[in-house]
Amino acid sequence: MNKISDNVQNDSKIYQDNINRILSNTDDEFIAIYKSVNHTTIKDLEHYLPKIIKACRKRANSSQESLASKLDCSRSDISKYENNFKSMKIDRFQRLCEVTNSKDAFMALLSGQEGLNWLIKRFEADGLWE
Fold first, then answer.
1. For the chain, what is the mean pLDDT?
2. Cβ-contact 129, 123 below 8 angstroms
3. Cβ–Cβ < 8 Å for 80, 54
4. CA-to-CA distance for 110 and 37, rounded, in angstroms?
5. Please, which pLDDT band fits residue 55 given cuts at 50, 70 and 90?
6. Distances (CA, A) of 126 to 7, 28, 59
7. For 88-127, how does the pLDDT look when each residue is reduced to its tens digit (9 = 90+)?
8. Band of the pLDDT at 1, cuts 50, 70, 90?
9. Closest by Cα among 91, 119, 70, 87 to 20
């Protein structure tokens, strides 16, 4: 395994603690926590998150409509998330990662820039990154 994969696995307890802290807070608090534990900027997060959402959906071979029904939202909401017209709340993103079998995306997001780089390379290798 590569260094990033090892770190994601070895630090699962820390990440789970961070996930629990994030899920218990508001979105503004999530941003503050995210900035405090990562070197990724909010601008990076805003840039990559819509692409990550779309790649996770494509990985699951799911349509926007099908994913929307699993996330209890509209197809229009999924389109807005993927095109950066609407922000996805962290609990919905966690659910998206669960239903698309993309928990690695959630963990990579919490791992900062290294995690994002690893995830993008993985999505690129699978032909899912646009």
1. 79
2. yes
3. no
4. 8
5. very high
6. 22, 33, 8
7. 888 899 999 999 999 999 888 877 778 888 899 999 999 9
8. very low
9. 91
Distances, alpha carbon 23 to alpha carbons 19, 58, 94, in Å: 6, 25, 9
Say which residue the tokens 């696995």 belong to.
9
Amino acid symbol at 80: K
Give CA angle at 68 (63, 73), nearest 5°.
160
Distance CA 106, CA 114 (A): 13
Predicted confidence (pLDDT) at residue 44 exceeds the cutoff of 60:
yes
The fourth-level CATH superfamily of domain 3-125 is lambda repressor-like DNA-binding domains (1.10.260.40)
- pLDDT confidence of residue 46: 78
What does the block give as tokens for 100? 């698309």
Q: What residue ranges do the domains of the chain occupy? A: 3-125
Cβ atoms of residues 84 and 46 within 8 Å: yes
SS percent in the chain: helix, strand, coil, step 5: 75, 0, 25
